[in-house]
Amino acid sequence: MKTSLQNIFTILAVLTFSISFAQKIEGVVTTDQNIPLEAANVVIKGTTFSTITDSEGRFSIESQGKLPLTLLVQYIGYNTAELEITAIPASPLLITLREENKLVEVVVSSRRRIEKVQDVPIAVSVVTGKQAEAAGAFNVNRIKELVPSVQLYSSNPRNTGINIRSLGSPFGLTNDGIDPGVGFYVDGVYYARPAATTLDFIDVEQIEVLRGPQGSLFGKNTTSGAFNITSRKPSFTPGADFEISYGNYAFLQAKASITGALGKKVAGRLSFSGTQRDGLIDNVVTGRPTNTLNNQGFRGQLLWTPTENTNVTFAGDLTTQRPDGYAQVVAGVAPTQRAAYRQFDAIIKDLNYQLPSLNAFDRKIDHDTPWRSGQDLGGISLNIDTKIGGGTLTSTTAWRFWNWDPSNDRDFTGLQVLAKSQNPTRQTQVTQEVRYAGQLTSKISGVAGVFFIDQTSQTNGTEESGNAQWRFSQSSTSPLWKTPGLFEGYGIHTDARIRASSAAVFGQIDWALTERFHVLPGLRYNFDKKDAHYSRKTYGGLQTTDPALLALKKSVYSDQAFDSDTDNTDFSGNITLTYKASDKINIYATAAKSYKPVGVNVAGLPSNSAGQPMTELAVIKPEKVYHYEVGVKTSPFKNSIFNLTFFNTDIKDFQTNVQAAELGVNRGYLANADKVRVRGAELDASFVISSHLTINGAATYTDGKYVKFTNAPLPLEETGLVVNGVQVSYKDVSGTELPGASRWAGSLGGELSDNARFFGNAGKIFFAADGYARSEFSSSPSASKYLVVKGYAIFNARLGFRASQGLSIQIWGRNLFNKDYYEQLLPASGNTGQYAGVLGDQRTYGVTFKYSL
């Protein structure tokens, strides 16, 4: 009897538990025309529990005792709905699914609030994380194929420049002494180093590319535009994504992300991305391919919600890159104005040397100095959002670092010209931004904030000559140049340090004069201070007291040291007028005065006739930017977007990078061009033709010129030019084209899809194709007929099945027609005539599997 009672009580307890915790969730699923959807799939996310709707669209599913939970509601041909359930609803849920053949209205946070991109009076392109993943755009270099206004040039991570509308960074080797003109933000944190753009994206939700000056919206001044990247946030509902890709050249990429609740008010998210690939260029000396990929990245986030009005997010990330890579291939030889014995072909003939190939696209090198491009980038951040009144007060505090450990073969040959060329760097930064954004009155909204950054960068470099240096540096017929061991092991140790601080107050208001007509004035006050130290000491080579031999050594490398400190303040601002002519037409016009901070040279200076550094070049004047833009955003017919923008930017004291003929000027030096002008037009379009076909495209026309630049460096082919017995060092290039500026660039893509099931999952089978093209551009600060990158077009395609839950698969191919093209051309150090190319990837293909819970 006692046992029976125990059994009864046990059964009652189980029933009570089930009733209390496994309550039913009921609902109705309809279309946006209020038509019931029969056989819609209803799933508790992260579990195998599911049900389907009946003929009236009704469903009932047990909660399984887990709250909060997320319901996924799926139906072929409709967008999947996600509903977070925190409590059992008292009445049936009403769930409306939208057909997939409707254009999704993208929302952005560029103006520090959530709004539809078509309502924002800014030229902005949006690439969602899903779009980037589908297109294989796992870094900024791939994003430029989707947003043709973006240009990225990288001969290695340190020497990376990112431009928008052909402006932002000087074309060529990077100098730490100036600020980039394109802001790069991840979850509100400013990344000061352009090397960050070469690393893989980690768990990205959305990428917003803003074009034109944005100084009144962002903490760090941005004269050319900004990347505003948001990561996927922690969720209290469990979820996970796993993805793996395989391809030719042993390509392997793995991604994983997991999220869920860690407590009642704490949620977490942990993400990983790793990419490996064999090299695409063969080193005939080592027998190993070079230019490999070897990237790993981690990102962790904790979300704490102490109240319903406050969110606190703590994030940390670490990314490492260890490729055997970034080797450049000799692309050609330019005859210079130097004597015949100083031409590259004559030099290598005397040294009994031949290039491994005269065709760069044979992808063969014989470099004797190993290529190393190791970097570590990471940091921590604390972001606090608190709703106050009609807006949100945000504080973003961050610390970041970047370590760079390189080795290069800057003569691009198998000769020991430069036996060592390495400039390891450590950079750290602290940033703080506080801003308030929201509705101030019934007619006025806006954003106001303060920003501070303090960063330090230190480089301890080494550059050392090899046994062939004498012949490449030989500048006379004196037999002393052949003195055994004179230059072998002769080099410089460099100590370059810079500390840069910047503080700003910024703000913009949106004043609704009428419901359709708005005025948006913005202001910014900036203070910038930079302190720099540069010192290099010679060492090694033949130890001698012979003045003639010492003079030869000094002509190659000499001691140099200088210090510079400078500061500057600036008021800048903008005003935008916007008129919403109808629900489908939004017109805006912007005028802006912007500013790029003062710069300092920290990579060596050219020497004057007395052999002393030209210290007058140590400080570079700030840029003054005057920008005008007119745009119209339209939806000409249902499920379409057609946006057109016209712009003109004038820059006084344009900061440009100059490649010097002296070896000791390690990465070129900075100079000011008097005036630059860039003007053009942009087109963005998206069309949903039917439930099965979508098309999108973008195009840009850019006319970029030096209006006045009288002290430009000589083009490569004019190196050594003598006029009336006088050595010429500079050239007037006024009226010539800016480097890196293609007249035309564009992208076009489309997708054809249909409903399907794969391993029991409802989803879409699809075929997608896209292409990217750009016209020729100059790859030299002073236009050189040898350093012109020819225009090219590449095409990509994907075929597969995708589902919001379960298994997705796609087969992909990039550069399907195996187009040979250069991304950049650059002269060898010393300007001896040979120049190298950064090669675009040849055809690659593979398969990607993704599983979502």
Can you describe what's shown?
Mean pLDDT is 87; it is low at 1-21 and 663-667. The protein is globular, with a radius of gyration of 30 Å. It has six helices and 53 strands. It starts with a helix and ends with a strand. With 853 residues, the protein is mostly beta strands. β51 (822-827) and β52 (834-839) form a beta hairpin.
Write the layout of secondary structure elements.
Elements: H1 2-21, E1 24-31, E2 41-44, E3 50-52, E4 58-62, E5 69-74, E6 81-85, E7 93-97, E8 107-108, E9 115-116, E10 124-128, H2 129-134, H3 140-143, E11 150-154, E12 160-164, E13 182-186, E14 189-190, E15 204-211, E16 225-231, E17 239-247, E18 251-261, E19 266-277, E20 281-283, E21 289-290, E22 293-307, E23 310-321, E24 329-333, H4 344-350, E25 364-365, E26 372-388, E27 391-407, E28 418-422, E29 425-439, E30 444-465, H5 469-473, E31 491-512, E32 517-539, H6 547-556, E33 560-582, E34 585-596, E35 599-600, E36 619-620, E37 623-634, E38 640-658, E39 669-688, E40 693-708, E41 712-713, E42 722-723, E43 726-727, E44 730-731, E45 744-758, E46 761-774, E47 777-778, E48 788-789, E49 792-802, E50 806-814, E51 822-827, E52 834-839, E53 844-852
Parallel strand pairs: 1-7, 13-16, 20-25
Antiparallel strand pairs: 1-4, 2-3, 2-5, 5-6, 8-9, 10-15, 11-12, 13-14, 15-16, 17-18, 17-53, 18-19, 19-22, 20-21, 22-23, 23-26, 24-52, 26-27, 27-29, 28-30, 29-30, 30-31, 31-32, 32-33, 33-34, 34-37, 35-36, 37-38, 38-39, 39-40, 40-45, 41-44, 42-43, 45-46, 46-49, 47-48, 49-50, 50-53, 51-52
Keywords: Cell outer membrane, Ion transport, Iron, Iron transport, Membrane, TonB box, Transmembrane, Transmembrane beta strand, Transport
InterPro entries: Beta-barrel_TonB, Beta-barrel_TonB_sf, CarboxyPept-like_regulatory, Plug_dom, TonB-dep_rcpt-like
Domain TonB-dependent receptor-like beta-barrel: 370-816
